[in-house]
Write a structure and sequence with these properties.
Number of strands: 10
CATH architecture of the largest domain: Alpha-Beta Complex
Number of helices: 6
Structural class: alpha/beta
CATH topology of the largest domain: Spore Coat Polysaccharide Biosynthesis Protein SpsA, Chain A
CATH class of the largest domain: Alpha Beta
Radius of gyration: 19 Å
Oligomer: single chain
Order of helices and strands: EEEHEHHEHEEEEHEH
Strand content: 15-25%
CATH superfamily of the largest domain: Spore Coat Polysaccharide Biosynthesis Protein SpsA, Chain A
C-alpha cells in the first residue's frame, strides 16, 4: 500500500510479437527485458502485487524468476495484434481481484519494451496520480519537429497530400507548437479510469515529460541503439 492506496503493477508481455520473436525475452545489455522490469519492481516495495499478463509459458517462467508473479496464462482471445492495453489490463485486474476478493485503487502498467525505466519515475507517477487526484498519469517525450503532424504527408490515389492542410503554411519549425508522444516508461491510472472510462489515458491526465531520449524496443535497431546508450553510461 502507498499513501493508503492499494496498487497493482501489471507487466503486459505476450509471446506473439512480430518484429522480434519473443521480444520480451530478448536481452539488452546482457539482461532480458523481463528481468529489467523485475529489477525495477524489486525496488518498489510499496506495490501490493506485481504480475505479468502473458500467453507464453517461457515468459511466465522468466517473470517468476525475476520476482514477478504469473498467476494465470492470458487467454488466446486476448493475445492478438489488435488487442488493446485496456482489454489486457482490465482482464488482469479483475482476475487478481477475484482471487484476492478485494479491489485495488491504482493500476500501474510497466511495459517490458522500455528498458531505461527507473524506480524513481514510477514513484513520481504514483505521487502525481494521488496528490493531483488525476484519472491517470502518462510519461511522454517531446516529438522531434521532423515528426510533427503538420510536417507529415499521406499518399492518396498515388498523389502526395498533406496529412493536415494546415501544414501548407509551415516554413520554419518555430511555427510549430510542441507535440508529445507516449514513451512507455509508466502508465498509472485509477481503477475507475480503466474499468469505467475504459482507457489508460483518462479525461483528467497528467503528463510527465521526460527530457532524455527514451528508447522503446520494437526492432533490432532499437536494441542496438539501446545497447549503445548503455555503453555510454559505463
Amino acid at each position: 500500500m502507498y499513501k493508503n492506496y492499494k496498487i497493482l503493477a501489471i507487466v503486459p508481455a505476450r509471446g506473439g510479437s512480430k518484429g522480434i520473436k519473443l521480444k520480451n525475452l530478448v536481452s539488452v545489455g546482457g539482461v532480458s527485458l523481463i528481468d529489467r522490469v523485475g529489477h525495477v519492481i524489486q525496488q518498489l516495495p510499496f506495490l501490493d502485487r506485481a504480475i505479468v499478463s502473458t500467453d507464453h509459458n517461457d515468459i511466465a517462467k522468466t517473470a517468476k524468476s525475476a520476482g514477478i508473479e504469473a498467476p494465470f496464462i492470458r487467454p488466446e482471445s486476448l493475445s492478438g495484434d489488435t488487442i488493446s492495453d485496456v482489454e489486457v489490463l482490465s482482464h488482469a485486474l479483475l482476475e487478481v481481484e477475484k482471487s484476492e476478493n478485494h479491489q485495488f485503487d491504482i493500476v500501474v502498467m510497466l511495459q517490458p519494451t522500455s528498458p531505461f525505466r527507473t524506480p524513481e519515475i514510477v514513484i513520481e507517477a504514483c505521487d502525481k496520480l494521488i496528490e493531483g487526484n488525476y484519472d491517470s498519469v502518462v510519461t511522454v517525450s517531446r516529438t522531434d519537429p521532423k515528426g510533427h503532424p503538420l510536417k507529415q504527408f499521406v499518399v492518396k490515389d498515388n498523389l502526395l497530400r498533406y496529412y493536415d492542410e494546415r501544414g501548407k503554411v509551415i516554413i520554419a519549425r518555430q511555427q510549430l507548437d510542441p507535440v508529445y508522444h507516449r514513451n512507455g516508461l509508466v502508465y498509472a491510472m485509477t481503477r475507475d479510469c480503466l474499468l469505467v472510462q475504459k482507457t489508460v489515458i483518462g479525461n483528467h491526465t497528467f503528463p510527465i515529460v521526460t527530457e532524455d531520449y527514451v528508447p522503446n524496443i520494437d526492432s533490432y535497431d532499437d536494441i542496438y541503439y539501446a545497447e549503445y546508450l548503455l555503453s555510454r553510461q559505463t
